[in-house]
Structures are given as C-alpha cells and as structure tokens.
Amino acid sequence: MLKPYRSMLRNPKRTMTVFVPTDEALSRLPLKQQSMLKNNWTLLTEILSRHIIPDVEWSPENLRGERVHYNLKNSTIRALGFKNGEDTYVEGGATWVKIVQSDVGCINGVIHLITNFMFYKNFTLWEAIRDMPKLSHAAGYISRYPEIRSLLSRAGSTPLTIFLPNDDSLSTIPSRTKQKFALNQTFLNQALQGHLAIGQEISSVNITNSFEVVTQLGEILKLWKSNGAIYVKGGHITARVIVSDIWCVNGLLHIIDNLLYLPTRNIYEEISRFDDLR
C-alpha cells in the first residue's frame, strides 16, 4: 500500500517514525469509505504518506506537554502526552488519535499503532451513522426526523458531538417501549436530541476529568473516565462508550451501550442485565 515509499521504508540509513492505523481504525470508517480506501490505492497511499515523519525517530516515552513534527507532505503532526502517563495522542488534519501500541522498534526507525486515520474525515455524521453496521437501529430512528438528519448532514462551522446506542443495546429494549416510540414520535425525538451536543467537539483526548455538557434538548450529559473506559450519564442512565472518536467533517460520533435519559426496562429487567446480580 506504500509502494512509492517502499525504498525509503527499507533504507537502513534513513530513520523515520511511522503511525500505522490498525484494523480497528479502518472499522471506524463508514462502509463506503472503507471500500473506497480498499479499492483506491492512490488515495490510500496519499493518506498513509501523511502518517510518516521522515528523519525523526520519535517515542512517546516520557512525553510531557506537546511536541510538533512534520510529515512527508510537510503537514504538522502534534503529539500530546498526559501527566498520568496513561495515554498518548497525536493529531494530524484536526483529528486526534490514540496510540494503542508504541515503540515497535525497527533498524531504521519506529512504528506506533493508532486508533484512527489522520488527515481523513471527508464524511458527515449522518453518513457515518447511516453506513455504520453497529448503528442500523439508531439510523432507522433518526431517519424519521428530517430536522435531526439535516443537522447531522450539515458540514458547517458549528461542531457537533453525538452519543448513539449500538444495535445490541437497542435490540434488547422491551417491545412495549418500542411500541411507545412508534405511538409517540415526540418522545423518541426528544430522546435523540438528548444524545446530541451542539457547538462542542468532544473527543476522548478532552475527557481527562469529570465534566458536563448541555445537549440539544437542554439536558445535562455527564462524562468521565474510569480505569481506561469512558462513561456518559444522562438522567439516571449510565452508558459506557464502546467505540470512541469517529471523526467526521462536522463533528464526532461515539457509540455507547445504552439509551440515555429514557428508562426502557422495569426494575427486574434492569437487574437481569447485570451478570453479578442474576
């Protein structure tokens, strides 16, 4: 996939740092973009060339604060480390990505595995939701409301962040609650707006301490990180972020494991969801 740069990557006399998106990074892209990258080697090579820092062997070890480097296309890549030493992020093309495995040593440099593609977010939030296999139920609900779909499709100057429950969580909602969704369109509309924050681009790099954001509905979402996992709470309902930081041209999408704000189960059904309470 990096054929034009093969000789450079093999050259033992030239050092470099390469950020390699994992298979998980590819799965965070909408299906259309995945297919595009797999079938367009020119585009893929262009994007991946921006993940190479020439003539520098950079390691996140002991990184504090921010450091800036330049890739093969002379675009900046910023590295940010936290004082707790837990996470290191790099940014390129206004996309922050997490290093999940660092310092894979080579004779001519170092490789770092990252969670997302940098310099590639040419799709809207709605395109990501519509083409994400894990969000088919949520996409179906959103498609009922043109105003929400239009907002998520707009590539404007106001950033958005949306937290959406995955298919596994929505498929276990009792049928009586789904009937309520069907009978009361306002009920579901308000629920969806309670998952959307306007004017803020909230990525995992921002979530170091507990903080609150206001949703489109005017409700409060509380976010925090615990033992490496990110949680979000709306009303009395807490959800874990199971896929974070799907970067889009107009904001960020996070996939969660529960529907916020709206209780959908009775006490017995809710207790039954916890393995240690059965």
TrEMBL record:
Pfam families xref list: Fasciclin (PF02469)
Protein name according to UniProt: FAS1 domain-containing protein
GO BP annotations, alphabetical order? cell adhesion; extracellular matrix organization
Output the superkingdom of the source species. Answer: Eukaryota
Example GO CC term: the record gives: extracellular space
Q: Where is the FAS1 domain?
A: 1-118, 122-260
GO MF: cell adhesion molecule binding
Q: Which SUPFAM superfamilies match?
A: FAS1 domain
Q: Which organism is it from?
A: Octopus bimaculoides (California two-spotted octopus)
Query: Which PANTHER family does the entry mention?
Result: FI19380P1, PERIOSTIN-RELATED
Upper lineage? Eukaryota, Metazoa, Spiralia, Lophotrochozoa, Mollusca
